[in-house]
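hey
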């Protein structure tokens, strides 16, 4: 009896370790961002800046959400625009699965032991304003990031990975930040009465504070993007040398 082939009966190439790892990083960061979005963080600054002053205030999801852009930039560089758009839009659909699972747990009868039900709902049950704003910001900014990354790659003939990483991430993070903060804390509380009404001065402060952190991450993550891309390519080139069906490459 012959050994089982490494691909499915339909001949589809098996996913590589790097491919699975990047998808896992993206999904993990996305879920973490959704679950930490309601906490506001405050970081003291060594100097006082315009608008934000001596401290920056930002949603707790800022760091985790920034990692999703690192993952999609690496995925785009390795596998191309179409697979990355598929990853992003499937991720958008999975947000609804996350919400359904969290709220089904919140609404299920509590046993009277462990974390009190009201505390559990307070921590994990993001407000309607946060849910709507995060989904809208995600859909626009993540798809824009994929398109911008590919656009810069074409304009630079595939050179200067740092330019498309920083350029696409910095601009898409600006779009994400403005949409999320404005809709979640400025528009929806006033328009339909969900969430706490926040002054427009604080809305602006949240936008600037969150974007400063995201911009810093976009600049600092470039060496990691180079390292991840190089490591995955080395691993997949090794897989390719083992057989023609071992590498799932760019489509």
């Amino acid at each position: 009896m012959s050994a089982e082939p490494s691909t499915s009966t339909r001949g589809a190439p098996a996913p590589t370790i790097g491919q699975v790892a990047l998808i896992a990083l993206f999904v993990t960061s996305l879920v973490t961002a959704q679950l930490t979005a309601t906490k506001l963080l405050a970081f003291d600054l060594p100097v006082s800046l315009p608008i934000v002053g001596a401290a920056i205030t930002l949603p707790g999801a800022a760091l985790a959400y920034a990692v999703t852009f690192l993952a999609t930039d690496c995925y785009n560089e390795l596998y191309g625009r179409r697979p990355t758009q598929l990853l992003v839009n499937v991720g958008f659909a999975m947000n609804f699965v996350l919400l359904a699972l969290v709220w089904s747990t919140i609404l299920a009868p509590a046993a009277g032991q462990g974390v009190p039900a009201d505390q559990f709902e307070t921590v994990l049950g993001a407000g309607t304003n946060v849910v709507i704003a995060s989904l809208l910001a995600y859909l626009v900014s993540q798809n824009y990031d994929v398109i911008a990354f590919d656009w810069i790659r074409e304009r630079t003939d595939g050179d200067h990975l740092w330019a498309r990483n920083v350029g696409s991430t910095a601009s898409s993070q600006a779009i994400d930040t403005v949409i999320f903060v404005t809709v979640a804390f400025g528009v929806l509380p006033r328009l339909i009465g969900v969430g706490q009404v926040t002054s427009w001065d604080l809305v602006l402060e949240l936008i600037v504070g969150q974007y400063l952190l995201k911009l810093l991450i976009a600049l600092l993550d470039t060496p990691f993007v180079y390292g991840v891309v190089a490591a995955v390519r080395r691993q997949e080139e090794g897989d390719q040398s083992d057989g023609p069906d071992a590498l799932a490459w760019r489509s």
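Confidence is low (pLDDT under 50) at residues 1-9, 244-251. The beta strands are 40-49, 53-59.
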